[in-house]
Write a structure and sequence with these properties.
heterodimer, A: alpha+beta, six-stranded mixed β-sheet, four-stranded antiparallel β-sheet, 12 strands, elongated, B: five-stranded mixed β-sheet, five-stranded antiparallel β-sheet, 4 helices, globular
Chain lengths: 267, 246
């Protein structure tokens, strides 16, 4: 058995009671994200990278581009893969070893948000139809875990991709590197936790430890929904709660999107 | 060691291609107390290397059969991020990182006062965020600061540095081209209190005279890093005194 995270009953009761009174332990409102910071271009050996902090949660995304052969059913398209490691550096409850179901869910949700929104222009990654394509490897290293890894990892992956250079000159010295072609409809992922009857955005570690259930929603800049995932426990949502979260996700994502756009403009 | 002489590694004036003297190490930057969840942590840059180290414990050793009733077990993880190198590193442990973890944990078992914590384990976790030759030394130097930051009782600090031979000259702290095309590499770690060597590996080709020169050079390098480690820990506790952090 591993070193499990244990939240004292007193703390759990405290967070639940606060929620009933309409408050959170760190003073945020229920629709408020923790402060976010994005730094891009932090790893020079990666084709793109981003160091993202969300409150005290910190993740580092790096992009590597590798030449490979296309899948038989998509001979004229590039490929992508997302890997996220719950690094034992980041929390006492994380253990080294092959990814467990939590890490697999996390990387699949981040992958879906990027893949299904068509963020990367896969057709532009074909070098020679049926023969040679670029494969985009998105690897996210969780460095410090204080809750809501879903949104931090997804934001870091998107920021890293947005600053990625395709290293074409390494393959063909006569050609020039170019910026990874991206769809302007960037999905922003936002997660909401339900504790008792209360819905709160961006749960921190303590809130996650006592939440009943969570819902993650990825929205594009037009407010359209691009991916969703319910998880985080055996709790359930009512129909109205789901609609409430979707509406909130549309509002809340503008803050994160604004910060991302500001950083990308400066990079 | 490639051992190929075709790549020029030394200039005619006796300096190296990156402008360093043979006995000069790359710039080192160390910061202690950079992570929130870890008991102690450290971020270290050495040339182009970027390394994070975190310490957890002492805590109950698991699995149970790994417990030692007389002392704590030191577990050292060395891991490279997939994006830390030119060709993506497949995630997960390989034979190289397993070996580095083993020799590094033995180095720290020499200095940590393990008898104080029977049945416990001390986890030292290092992550190479960017690699540019000499990552194991960078990881060990960072780990020592993280252990001190965690308040783990130790007989002394450990610093690590490599010396080697490139372009026919014995030099300190090989950079990437020197490591790839040089003739020898000799990473060592030093218990800075006793001056004893707690880790030593070597590959390549050195005469016994060259080995002695390289060993002395690496020892001197470890001591230089020791001063920077001390400075980083002073700064960390100055921040506590100033009330900036807990």
């Amino acid at each position: 058995m591993g070193h499990d995270v244990v939240l004292s009953t007193i703390k759990k009761d405290y967070i639940r009671r606060l929620a009933e009174e309409g408050r959170r332990a760190d003073g945020r409102s229920f629709d408020e994200f923790r402060p976010v910071s994005i730094k891009t271009g932090v790893i020079s050996k990666a084709e793109g990278s981003a160091d993202v902090t969300l409150g005290k949660t910190r993740v580092l995304a790096g992009i590597k581009m590798i030449i490979g052969s296309p899948y038989p059913d998509t001979p004229d398209r590039g490929a992508m893969a997302t890997g996220i490691e719950l690094n034992p550096l980041a929390a006492p409850e994380f253990e080294a070893g092959p990814p467990r179901e939590g890490a697999v869910e996390l990387s699949r949700v981040v992958d879906r948000g990027i893949r299904e929104s068509g963020l990367i222009d896969m057709k532009s990654l074909c070098i020679e139809e049926g023969e040679k394509i670029w494969m985009v490897f998105i690897d996210v290293d969780i460095l410090d875990h204080d809750g809501n890894l879903f949104d931090a990892a997804s934001l870091a992956a998107v920021a890293a991709l947005s600053t990625t250079t395709v290293p074409l000159s390494q393959v063909d010295p006569e050609k020039e590197d170019y910026k990874l072609p991206m769809n302007p409809e960037v999905p922003i992922q936002t997660t909401f936790a339900k504790i008792g009857e209360t819905i709160m955005a961006d749960p921190d570690l303590d809130e996650e430890a006592c939440m009943d259930v969570r819902l993650t929603v990825a929205t594009d800049q037009n407010g359209n929904i691009r991916a969703m995932q319910k998880g985080g426990g055996s709790g359930a949502f009512t129909r109205d709660e789901i609609l409430e979260i979707v509406a909130k996700a549309r509002d809340v994502q503008t803050g994160l999107r604004g910060e991302l756009e500001r950083v990308l403009k400066e990079s | 060691m490639g051992g190929t002489q075709e790549v020029q590694l030394m200039k005619d004036d006796g300096t190296r291609m990156d402008g360093r003297r043979p006995d000069e190490m790359r710039p080192v930057h160390i910061e202690a107390g950079v992570l929130n969840r870890a008991s102690g942590s450290c971020y270290l840059e050495m040339g182009g290397n970027k390394v994070l180290a975190g310490v957890y414990g002492p805590r109950e050793a698991i699995p149970r059969h790994s417990q030692n009733p007389t002392k704590a077990v030191v577990k050292f993880r060395y891991n490279m991020a997939p994006f830390s190198v030119d060709d993506r590193k497949r995630p997960g442990p390989d034979r190289r990182s397993t070996e580095i973890g083993k020799v590094a944990s033995e180095a720290f078992a020499n200095v940590i006062i393990v008898e104080e914590f029977p049945r416990a384990q001390v986890d030292v976790i290092t992550e190479i965020l960017e690699a540019a030759a000499g990552t194991r030394c960078a990881a060990i130097s960072a780990a020592s600061v993280a252990l001190a930051d965690a308040g783990i009782p130790m007989r002394g600090m450990v610093a690590a540095c490599a010396a080697g031979k490139a372009g026919g000259t014995v030099c300190l702290d090989l950079n990437q081209p020197e490591d790839n095309h040089g003739e020898a590499d000799l990473p060592i770690a030093l218990n800075l209190t006793t001056g004893e060597v707690v880790l030593l590996q070597m590959d390549g080709h050195l005469s016994s005279d060259e080995f002695e020169t390289a060993l002395d050079m690496a020892i001197k390098g470890c001591k230089e890093i020791g001063e920077i480690q001390k400075e980083a820990l002073y700064k960390r506790y100055q921040r506590v005194v100033d009330g900036e952090v807990a």
